[in-house]
Design a protein that fits this description.
Elements lengths: L3 E9 L9 E10 L2 E9 L8 H7 L3 H7 L3 H12 L4 E3 L2 H10 L8 E3 H8 L8 H7 L10 H20 L3 H10 L7 H18 L3 H8 L13 H5 L10 H4 L14 H6 L6 H5 L7 H16 L2 E5 L6 H16 L3 E5 L2 H18 L6 E3 L9 H10 L4 H13 L16 H8 L10 H4 L8 H10 L3 E5 H9 L10 E4 L5 H8 L2 E4 H11 L10 H12 L2 H38 L9 E4 L8 H32 L9 H26 L6 E8 L11 E8 L3 H9 L4 E6 L9 E4 L3
Parallel strand pairs: 1-4, 4-5, 6-15, 6-16, 7-9, 7-10, 8-9, 10-15
Antiparallel strand pairs: 1-2, 2-3, 11-14, 12-13, 13-14
Helix pairs in contact: 5-7, 5-19, 7-9, 8-9, 15-16, 16-17, 19-20, 23-24, 25-27, 25-29, 26-27, 26-29, 27-28, 28-29
């Protein structure tokens, strides 16, 4: 039987518990779907109610004066009703801020339906209480009143509990195993789900059991690492292992064959193929006009700028020529967008519309950067080592529930709202400097999500990317994308900013500390780290004398890491002092100081340079120690060390990441380039964080990016089409085409 719990909601006069007051309390006591008690009360806030709060809630000053209770009395009654029961809330941290300020419910267990929904309803789009209620068919008659929202929260919790009970038992047990040593409130929810699912399994009454009974048995594969990767193999991608052999490579024609502009344009004319095949298709003369221009640019090998206003339908105007050109000449065409949304629209709507309307046998593929794709090897390693904190645990839970449904392994399918969660995803992504096709081949022909996407792109006529990946390909000398000579840039007015972002760098103390902490634990860190993990694995498989030698190397690096962290704190403190001294703005504002040659002559900057020289030398000591450790580990290939290759790869990746961070920081402080601009910032701490310090950061960005775009894109491609609703700059060698 489900536990008894309460859902709670507060209405307040504002968002800051240090300055605002509780206005209304609503509580629903429940067991599963059954409501056991309901209670709410207005609270006299002891101050005027802001007009916007009255508009939002309908609570007036007169109503509070007539019915509102003093806060101490309302909280005493709430404590009497709730006692030590678990408290459920939506974005419960908000309510906790106000309650903890009054020192009530400090020992109760709290569960957040926002967090649970982000795990169990990954495709909701929006995660506010109202949006989730609509998504799950929950009635929400009076939003922004405490009792009504508490009722909705209870119903949402009940629906989420139903979904959790239908999660495969193996996945539930893995979530419980991983969270056993982590302070993660949601663990209790999944314990309840596993308990209830086990009861239902005996009766065969759960929805999940009924569905599973109808499914054909999944073909099981042996994966490195034993039973853990069986959860990874749940992804339907593994059912497509033979797909790679079915992808036909493109075969470029030795001689360019022009495409027939008139025939292609006829498809978009009145009475054409699109009007016949696509409901509500609208003939647009501007669209046909643009299509003709793109066809001619491809035929002549020219660059083209098309300024096409909203409503032109430019996607089809460039996709049609691109597909015909790619098919006729066996040449890949890359289409680059600024946003993931447009990338998805081209792949899931526009390209399918083309296939529906025209008898064209073409292949379109979406390719994103490595950081977007899940790495099965890194996931297996984290499943084995366990999460370091609640954020990693939350992301692991999302990934485990998502794996059975994803075809792409694209993390954009997941909802990860916080920087901490995105940081946890980064540790699972394929953005691993030691990742190679050979290392990933152990997961099967289609077992690596990124390499599978890359393989599909190799065989595609049109490859849809975003500006960030397009520019990353330039930065790594055309190793990120399959080879191409023809390029279409949509949302081209963002290309300059995207180039600046791609070539920019920033660092703060917390970035450096996280990188160091990945190697070795620092103060107050209790999570797993690479050095302890390596020593433990070596001890489990190697003779004592070898393990002792490796331990000495690891301890030397660990000591260097601790000293580097201490020096980094001094260094960033001096940077913060420099910002304070050389900016006029004060108070709760972000302070910025540009590092001009004149500013670098100031005495305060000399202190920064001296501190950096010391920190830079210490970081090099850590890097040298890692090199010695890696050389020692390279001699141990024959000892059967568990997950040896992954262990070495993670150490090499951490070493490379730390060295890149050190080198970029050294350029800002000691070796500035005349082609870049540099500045330092001091960002105030978030409101309400007692004793928090400002975040000090250093930044670098290129001064001019136009010549870079011209040199690496326009000059090196046979035809580039730049299009957007607003384009004002005409580059050399580009044919401007306006009026669309």
């Amino acid at each position: 039987m489900p536990r008894i719990a309460v859902s709670l909601d507060l209405e307040t006069t504002g968002l800051d518990p240090n300055r605002d007051a509780i206005l209304e309390i609503g509580v629903v006591k429940f067991r599963g779907d059954e409501v056991l008690d309901e209670w709410s009360t207005l609270v006299d806030p002891g101050r005027p109610i802001p007009h916007k709060i009255t508009e939002l809630t309908g609570i007036t000053q007169a109503e509070v004066a007539a019915k509102g209770k003093p806060l101490f009395e309302a909280l005493r009654e709430a404590e009497h009703r709730i006692r030590d029961l678990p408290i459920v809330g939506h974005n419960v941290a908000f309510d906790l801020g106000f309650l903890n300020k009054q020192r009530v419910f400090t020992r109760n267990e709290f569960l957040d339906t926002f967090e649970l929904a982000s795990i169990l309803v990954p495709h909701a789009g929006r995660y506010g209480l109202g949006a989730l209620a609509r998504e799950l068919g929950i009635d929400l008659p009076a939003a922004h009143r405490a009792l009504a929202d508490a009722k909705a929260t209870h119903r949402l919790y009940a629906r989420l509990a139903e979904r959790a009970r239908d999660v495969p038992a193996q996945t539930l047990q893995e979530i419980l195993r991983l969270s056993a040593s982590i302070d993660w409130p949601a663990r209790a929810f999944f314990e309840d789900a596993a308990r209830e699912a086990a009861r239902g399994a005996f009766s065969g009454g759960s929805i999940g059991a009924q569905i599973a009974a109808k499914q054909p048995p999944r073909r099981r594969r042996v994966r490195p690492g034993g039973a853990v990767p069986e959860l990874i193999a749940q992804s339907p991608m593994f059912a497509r292992e033979a797909q790679g052999a079915q992808i036909k490579p493109l075969r470029p024609n030795p001689d360019v064959e022009p495409i027939d502009t008139e025939t292609i344009a006829a498809a978009l004319e009145q009475g054409g193929a699109f009007e016949q095949a696509i409901d509500h298709f609208e003939h647009r003369p501007q669209q046909v006009h643009m299509l003709r221009a793109v066809c001619e640019a491809l035929n002549r090998g020219e660059h083209l700028i098309v300024e096409a206003g909203t409503g032109t339908g430019k996607s089809l105007a460039y996709l049609l020529p691109a597909i015909h050109w790619a098919q006729r000449n066996g040449e890949r065409v890359v289409v680059s967008t600024n946003t993931i949304n447009l990338q998805e629209q081209l792949a899931t709507k526009d390209a399918p519309d083309l296939q529906k309307a025209l008898p064209l046998d073409f292949r379109a593929a979406v390719l994103k950067g490595r950081s977007h794709y899940l790495c099965p090897a890194r996931l297996a390693a984290m499943l084995q080592s366990g999460p370091a904190n609640a954020d990693e645990m939350r992301v692991l839970a999302k990934v485990l529930l998502w794996l059975p449904s994803t075809l792409s392994g694209d993390g954009d399918e997941l909802f990860m709202p916080s920087p901490a969660e995105r940081g946890a995803w980064a540790r699972l992504s394929a953005d691993n400097p030691t990742c190679t096709s050979e290392r990933c081949s152990q997961w099967g022909d289609a077992g690596c999500f990124f390499h599978n996407a890359r393989q599909e792109a190799e065989g595609a006529h049109v490859v849809i990317v975003n500006h960030a990946l397009l520019l990353a390909d330039v930065a790594v000398e055309n190793r990120a994308l399959p080879e191409y000579k023809y390029l279409i840039v949509d949302e081209a007015h963002h290309l300059e900013a995207a180039t600046t972002d791609q070539l920019s760098f920033s660092i703060n103390q917390y970035d450096l500390r996280r990188t160091l902490e990945e190697l070795s634990p620092l103060q107050r860190s209790r999570g797993p780290n690479l050095l302890d993990d390596a020593v433990g694995r070596v001890r489990s498989a190697c003779p004592a004398e070898i393990a002792s030698a490796v331990t000495v190397y690891a301890e030397q690096v660990s000591g260097g890491v601790a000293e580097a962290d201490r020096m980094a704190e001094e260094f960033f403190a001096l940077v913060g002092d420099f910002v304070e001294r050389h900016t006029e703005a004060k108070g709760d504002y972000t302070l910025r100081a540009r590092l001009t040659p004149a500013m670098r002559t100031q005495p305060a900057w000399s202190n920064v340079e001296i501190a950096w020289d010391d920190l830079n030398a210490q970081l090099n000591t850590v890097l040298d120690g890692l090199d010695r450790l890696n050389r020692a580990l390279s001699d141990l290939t024959d000892f059967g060390i568990p997950d040896y290759e992954e262990m070495v790869a993670r150490l090499l990746g951490a070493r490379r990441g730390l060295d890149e961070m050190r080198g970029s920081t050294n350029a800002i402080v000691s070796k500035p380039s005349p082609g870049s601009i540099y500045w330092v910032e001091s960002q105030p701490p978030a409101s309400g964080r007692a004793g928090a310090r400002p975040t000090i950061s250093l930044h670098a960005a290129p001064l001019h990016v136009g010549p870079l775009v011209e040199e690496h894109l326009l000059k090196k491609k046979k035809s580039v089409v730049l299009t957007s609703a607003t384009l004002r700059t005409v580059s050399r060698g580009v044919v401007p085409y306006r009026g669309v």
